Every structure is written in structure tokens, then in C-alpha cells.
Amino acid sequence: MWVRVDVCDDKRKVVFGRLDNAPLNDYGGKIELGSQLMVSFAKIREHRKPTEFTPQ
Length: 56
Prior knowledge:
mainly beta; three-stranded antiparallel sheet; about 0% helix; about 30% strand; globular
């Protein structure tokens, strides 16, 4: 999943943002493109800044 981060809470070690792609799993229909999420730092595998993406 790709999450577009809105807020990073270093104290609680979580980020808040919106899902930026359609999820591969169903999740019972609870998660879809644009869903608001809270993700712990431990679950983040890769981080990119907006400037690291190339326009397509």
C-alpha cells in the first residue's frame, strides 16, 4: 500500500494519511482508495519524499 502522509507523530511513532492506491486485499470492503489510515513506523518499509517521484 502507498500512503500519502498528512501528519507524522514522532512521539507516538505513527503517521496519518490517505491510501494512495487501490488495496490488493479486500479487507471486507473497509479500505479503499482514499481511505484515511494511521500506520505505525514499524509497518513502513519505504519512505519517499514528494520530490523523489517523477511526473508521468
